[in-house]
Amino acid sequence: MEIKLFDSELKVMSVLWREGDTTAKHISDVLKEETGWNMNTTYTLIKRCIKKGAIERSEPNFMCHALIPKEEVQEAETNELINKIYDGSADKLFAALLSRKKLSAEQIEKLKQIVTDLE
Fold first, then answer.
1. Labelling 119: which of 35, 52, 54, 80 has CA 20 to 30 A away?
2. CA-CA distance, 81 to 66, in Å (whole number)?
C-alpha cells in the first residue's frame, strides 16, 4: 500500500527519520525552529500522518514512531518525478541531473560505480 504524503507531512516525517522515535512535543519544537510552525500546525500534521498510517502514536507523552522507511518514500517520490516530468524515463532524469552542474572527479567515479553495480 502506497501512502501519499504532502510536503508539510514529509517535514514531520523527516524529523522522525532523523531523530528516531520521539514525542510530538519534540517534533513540534524542532519544526518551530526549522519552519516557524506553531504547535497546533505540527500536531495537525502529525495526526494526518497517523490517519494515513505513516506514524504510530503511543502513550505516555504522545510518542511518535515512523511506520514507513525514508527509502520507501524517496523511491515513491522519485518514481513519481520520473513519471510526471521525464515520461517515465530514468535516463532522461539522470541526464538532466548531470547536465545541471559540474561534477568533481570523485563524484563522477561514484556515479560510474553505481552504474557498474547496476549492470
1. 80
2. 23
